[in-house]
Write a structure and sequence with these properties.
- It is built from 15 helices and 23 strands.
- By secondary structure, the chain is of the alpha+beta class.
- The strands form 6 sheets. Strands 1, 2, 7, 8, 9, 12, 18 and 19 form an 8-stranded mixed sheet that branches. Strands 5-4-14-15-16-13-17 form a 7-stranded mixed sheet.
- α1 runs parallel beside α3 (117-130), α1 (18-33) packs parallel to α7 and α7 packs antiparallel against α8 (366-373).
- It is globular, with a radius of gyration of 23 Å.
- The chain starts with 5 loop residues before the first strand and ends in a 14-residue tail after the last strand.
Length: 549
């Protein structure tokens, strides 16, 4: 290993998403208020802040208001308030609308804003840098560093200029070590370093397994006559039959509509393709009617935490903390997690600042754990903690009714006296002989599209000659187990065409991994039935380059 240079900070943050940026801003605010100095840096694996950010998004500004009360005057991109809120139940040929009065109060979008979360993060990054935060885009945290006593010392970025065979190319550069008194991990859902931390520190020993959905999203320019800024529509029902989930259409500024489908990854049928379900959803008459005459601008996909309160692991450990979606603070029925992620980052920042000010370094930030679990984040997530497991257990229709009843009862302080647990998504898949194949319609190239053309408009780019970042623990498993028992479901659950079984007609099947297609959604790491696929970071700067997703 080449000698690596190192840089030291009071706090190192991995990931420039809402949680990481909010933490950095809060640290600098606290230091300024007390006339102190505190050094903070953020590592971001995307080519720029926002490049890997993908969300709906309708944002609850509660945490942002706490962090930057004058966010309107500062030029925040939250400029389109929600003006209409619809909930459709789709059938094969039509729909019926659920009256908003039937919804629990927490489902209201009054006071919320529809916005590109990527653009919100870009703006927050500017605010952070103005306070003196150092942000390093294009540098992926690839390794956790430890002190001799086992506490987290910081992280190291990945080496650059390594060929696929592991040799060093002429432009080779060793990674950089970043040391911190405390390191915050804000990697988003299913972060690869967070997985290691959970294992090493047994962080999820007492929590329910985390479960996930995959969110597939497109951005469309639509006919101005069909567009109303601030109109928000959520759907459930058709076309999902072998899974549960729902769609969204958010009318944003500039005659653009953000639309997508979220599919829970606890589905059983190995023939299901979340990507194809999304393309089929767009062909519903109500949705197709909106899109006709428009133009698709961008596409992306990302895993979403759906485990809720009972799946949150221990948050603090010696030398570090999990914040944002690394821990999993998404409110599933609200389809919102940015506000809770930001609040978690702010609470972690307050605990770390107190420790650094007291000249403590590398201990466990118990104050963060205590503050989070007594905050409004906890109150909000406890209210909806049985929603996902109820739908998972009883199905989309009955589960939704039971979940709504439970939310209403908890709103009235008479909730059910128990908390349901989850089961790991990868363990739910049926063998192929127990499932029915699904025949999906061919894309028309106007409303629905194939995966490769979709990856193209995600602006995904990786250096071709680098080690494959989708690693296999056992190279024989994809054929000997996944193909034989499940008909290679990785060919269908991947929304980017990364996995292909080739050579089957010649009697010599093997798995081909098209790593350059990867949009970093992490679905393969989650849904692989044998947990044989391990997603690790590629060279920094690789992956999608989402414009305003």
């Amino acid at each position: 290993m080449a000698d690596r240079e190192s840089m030291s900070y009071d706090v190192v943050i991995v990931g420039a998403g809402p949680a990481g940026l909010a933490a950095a801003i809060r640290l600098k605010q606290l230091a300024a208020a007390q006339g102190r100095e505190i050094s903070v840096c953020i590592l971001e694996k995307g080519s720029e802040v926002g490049a890997h950010i993908l969300s709906g998004a309708v944002v609850d500004p509660r945490a942002l208001t706490e962090l930057l009360p004058d966010w309107t005057e500062r030029g925040s991109p939250l400029t389109v308030p929600v003006v209409e809120n619809h909930h459709w139940v789709l059938t094969a040929k039509g729909k019926y609308s659920l009256p908003h009065l039937l919804m629990p109060p927490l489902m209201s979008n009054k006071g919320n804003y529809t916005v590109s979360l990527g653009n919100l993060c870009r703006w927050l990054a500017g605010e952070a840098e103005a306070l003196g935060v150092e942000i390093f885009p294009g540098f992926a945290a690839a390794e956790i560093l430890f002190h001799d006593d086992g506490s987290v010392k910081g992280v190291a970025t990945g080496d650059m200029g390594v060929a696929r065979d592991g040799s060093r190319k002429p432009d080779y550069q060793p990674g950089m070590e970043l040391h911190g008194a405390y390191t915050f991990f804000a990697e988003g859902a299913r972060g690869h370093l967070t997985k290691e931390l959970k294992r090493i520190f047994s962080l999820d020993e007492e929590s329910s397994p985390q479960v996930y959905g995959i969110g597939l999203k497109e951005l469309w320019d639509v006919d101005p006559a069909k567009h109303k800024p601030g109109r928000v529509i959520h759907t459930q029902g058709w076309p999902l039959r072998d899974a549960w989930g729902g769609g969204f259409l958010y009318h944003q500024e500039g005659n653009q509509v953000a639309l997508g489908l979220v599919v829970a990854l606890n589905y059983r049928n190995p023939y299901l393709s979340p990507f194809e379900e999304f393309q089929r959803w767009k062909q519903h008459p109500e949705i197709r009617g909106l899109l006709e005459g428009g133009r698709r601008v961008s596409y992306g996909a990302r895993a979403i935490n759906e485990g809720g309160w009972q799946a949150i692991p221990k948050l603090a450990f010696a030398g570090g903390a999990l914040i944002g979606c690394s821990a999993g603070f998404v409110n599933v029925p609200r389809i919102k997690g940015s506000h809770t992620a930001m609040k978690s980052g702010m609470l972690a920042a307050e605990a770390a600042f107190e420790a650094v000010a007291a000249d403590r370094r590398g201990d466990t930030l118990s104050a963060y754990e205590d503050a989070l679990r007594s905050s409004w984040v906890a109150d909000e997530l406890k209210l909806v903690r049985n929603v996902e497991p109820m739908v998972a257990k009883f199905g989309g229709f009955a589960g939704t009714l039971l979940a709504a009843a439970d939310m209403w009862m908890r709103t009235l302080k008479i909730g059910l006296p128990f908390t349901m647990r989850h089961h790991p998504d990868h363990a739910q898949l049926w063998r192929k002989d127990l499932a029915r194949p699904i025949a999906y319609p061919r894309p028309d190239g106007v409303i629905s599209f194939d995966r490769l053309s979709s990856v193209f408009v995600s602006n995904t780019n990786h250096e071709e000659d680098q080690p494959i970042h989708l690693t296999l623990k056992d190279a024989a498993v994809p054929v000997d187990v996944n193909l034989r028992l499940y008909d290679a479901p990785e060919q269908r659950y991947c929304p980017a065409g990364v996995y292909e079984i080739i050579g089957e007609e010649e009697g010599n099947p093997r798995l081909q991994i098209n790593a350059p297609n990867c949009v970093h959604c992490k679905t393969c790491d989650i849904k692989d039935p044998t947990q044989n696929i391990n997603w690790v970071v590629p060279e920094g700067g690789g992956g999608p380059n989402y414009p305003n997703m």
